[in-house]
Amino acid sequence: MRTHRKPVSLYRRVMIEPLHPLPPGLALDEQLCFALYAASRAMTGCYRPQLDGLGLTYPQYLVMLVLWEQHTVSVSRLSERLQLSTGTLSPLLKRLETAGLLTRRRRADDERLVQLTVTQRGLDLMYHAAAARAGVERTMGLSPTAIAELRDQLHELTSRLRAAVEPHGQTA
User: Which residues contact 128 (CB under 8 A, 6 or more apart)?
Assistant: First the structure.
């Protein structure tokens, strides 16, 4: 014998209409800041499986990019290049040193400065990382020219935004 049941609603809460209309430009999907944030998280997510295979986190990968480019760099210069505090970098550098990818040494000319140098093992990792980067670029589906243009636009935007902020974090 068949019984008839009333359909059960999956949503039992009443939708509440906003008391005031949303001002123009305040919807989440209209925010450039959110689009950049979401794109950054998605980019990091694309790198994650590639970097996991190399034993690197994304921030560690950024450190290695600078070392592959420079071979040796002070912690303070690395901090400037990556726009990260030395306190944030310290644990990353310790793990990279433990993994044998870099060495840390006090500079003879100024013992206050710590100099980082990529090791041969760190250099060997560079070729595997290049393949990971190429895979991410294929995933983006953009031409090399489009990637370069987007990157340059983002660098320009970053420069403008940083210039608009005074040293104490207040807008100009």
Answer: 53, 54
Q: CA angle 80-124-110, nearest 5°?
A: 40
Instruction: Provide the domain count of the chain.
Output: 1
Asked whether residue 82 is domain-assigned, the answer is yes
Are the C-beta atoms of residues 112 and 151 closer than 8 Å to each other? no
Q: Using one digit for the tens of pLDDT, what is the confidence trace for 34-61?
A: 999 999 999 999 999 999 999 999 999 9
Q: What is the CATH number of the domain that holds 111?
A: 1.10.10.10
pLDDT value, residue 111? 86
Residue 73 near residue 66, CB atoms below 8 Å: yes
* CA pair distance 98, 6, nearest whole angstrom: 64
Domain span including residue 85: 39-141
CA distance 103 to 115: 8
Rounded to two decimals, the pTM is 0.82
> Of the candidates 117, 99, 112, 103, which has an alpha carbon nearest to the alpha carbon of residue 57?
99
| Dist CA 121 CA 102 (whole Å) | 8
Is residue 24 included in any domain, yes or no? Answer: no
Going by the DSSP 8-state scheme, the letter that residue 141 receives in this structure is: T
